[in-house]
Amino acid sequence: MSTESQIAFIGGGNMARSLVGGLIADGYPAQRITVSEPEPERREQLRSRFGVAVTADNGEALEGADAVVLAVKPQTVRTVAEEIAPALGQAGAVAISIAAGVRLADLQRWLGPQAAVVRAMPNTPSLIQSGATALIANAQVSAAQHSLAESLLRAVGQTQWLTDEAQMDAVTAISGSGPAYFFLLMEALEEAGVELGLDRETARLLTLETATGAARMALESEDTPARLRERVTSPGGTTERALGVLDDADLRGAIQRAAEAAAHRAHELGNLLGEQ
Ligand SMILES: NC(=O)C1=CN([C@@H]2O[C@H](COP(=O)(O)OP(=O)(O)OC[C@H]3O[C@@H](n4cnc5c(N)ncnc54)[C@H](O)[C@@H]3O)[C@@H](O)[C@H]2O)C=CC1
Ligand SMILES: O=C(O)[C@@H]1CCC=N1
Questions:
Q1: What atom in ligand 2 is closest to the CA of residue 74?
Q2: Residue 172 domain-assigned?
Q3: 227: domain range?
Q4: Nearest alpha carbon, ligand 2 atom 3
């Protein structure tokens, strides 16, 4: 992406840290990134780890910005949006909200009728440029702003534009929250290894290498995950026995219900925080 654009982050928490870290790792100049964050410790961490400019003043972060990433909690987005609306209009910057649930129409209402707004759902592996982000833009977003938003998120992983905003709840449930499901699986498998007699370090290493190997294999293979799973499963062997236990526990059903609960919560947040 062009390294000329000035990027402001409003909120310097977990997700901002992942995006900033990913951008810096991609070679984006630190002096072109400003993060506004009220917590002094978080500001200091961002400054010392990534070398970006930090401030406690949202207005200051916006000065000269071409893109402003709203990286505060969904419940804080309205306050921040209304606060920055005048400066955003003057800067002519595109606002990129990553808040779960918060809808384009509400963002537009809070930021002003002329505001160019992109709603995005990234995930934390952006930190190591392995993120997955879905995006959708309002009609005010220019072609240049469209490509700025895309290149910003593409610097930290894969991007996918949506044409129907309703899909954002599903995206939030699958890739937004998704890393947590895989981390939980890793925690559980590591623990099982320890229970079976491995030392923790060995159990963790084997778990993480296996997770990485399986994910890379699924990405690079032309076969479906189902086919790859079948190849691990020798008839009458160990995997078959293990998968039987997971089927009895209805793991697939639990995952389906978990994703539905996350999507439902995203929708609920949109209803609770929005005005329609
Ligand atoms: N954590 C994740 O994996 C993902 C989070 N998101 C979204 O990103 C947003 C941020 O989430 P997290 O980073 O996890 O939360 P977080 O709580 O770690 O970060 C939010 C930050 O905003 C700061 N803040 C609070 N009020 C502020 C204000 N008025 N002005 C400027 N900064 C302010 C807080 O001090 C905090 O550091 C949420 O809307 C969430 O839905 C989206 C995708 C993934
Ligand atoms: O848990 C959350 O609400 C945020 C949105 C997606 C991932 N984390």
A1: 3
A2: no
A3: 178-266
A4: 100
From atom 22 of ligand 1, which residue's Cα is the shortest distance away? Answer: 11
Instruction: Please give the single-letter amino acid code of residue 92.
Output: G
| pTM (two decimals) | 0.96
Q: Are residues 191 and 113 in the same domain?
A: no
Which ligand 1 atom sits nearest the alpha carbon of residue 179?
3
The answer to ipTM > 0.90 is yes
Residue of 172, 174, 175, 181 with the most ligand 2 atoms within 8 Å of its CB, for mutation: 172
State whether the beta carbon of 120 lies less than 6 angstroms from ligand 2.
no
Q: Are residues 146 and 11 in the same domain?
A: yes
Domains of the chain: total? 2
What is the distance in A from the centroid of ligand 1 to the CA of 99?
A: 8
- pLDDT tens by residue, 76-116: 999 999 999 999 988 889 999 999 999 999 999 999 999 99
| Domain containing residue 27: CATH number | 3.40.50.720
Q: Which residue type occupies 28?
A: Y
